[in-house]
């Protein structure tokens, strides 16, 4: 179902991103990546008092995230 949704959005010429918490789950999503890789999340997120992403303002990744019609976190 998720892959169908991602495909439908992409067929409309829009950007859809698919991320998951594990590499195995990411392989089941079309164009899927781990959240740590795609969103620059720290690996020790549960140990940080204020966890944040390492996406620089004005970077290519920041622009991609802003343009995405949907971000699916499975």
Provide a quick synopsis of the model.
The chain is an alpha/beta fold and about 70 residues long. About 35% of the residues lie in helices and about 20% in strands. A three-stranded parallel beta sheet has the order 2-1-3.
Task: Lay out the secondary structure.
Elements: H1 2-11, E1 15-20, H2 23-27, E2 33-34, H3 35-38, H4 60-67, E3 68-73
Parallel strand pairs: 1-2, 1-3
Question: What would the keywords be for this entry?
Answer:
74 residues; three-stranded parallel β-sheet; 3 strands
Structure notes:
It is a single chain. By secondary structure, the protein is α/β, with parallel strands linked by helices. The chain has helices spanning 2-11, 23-27, 35-38, 60-67; strands at residues 15-20, 33-34, 68-73. The protein has a three-stranded parallel sheet with strand order 2-1-3. The protein is flat and about 40 Å long. The N and C termini lie close together (12 Å).
Rg from alpha-carbon coordinates: 13 Å
Helix content: 25-40%
Strand content range:
15-25%
How many strand units? 3
> Strand sequence of the main sheet, in spatial order?
2-1-3
Largest sheet: 3 strands, parallel
Task: Choose one word for the global shape.
Answer: flat
Q: Low-confidence runs (pLDDT<50, min 5 residues)? A: none
Give the SSE string: HEHEHHE
Mean pLDDT: 89
* N/C terminus separation: 12 Å
Supply the number of helical segments: 4
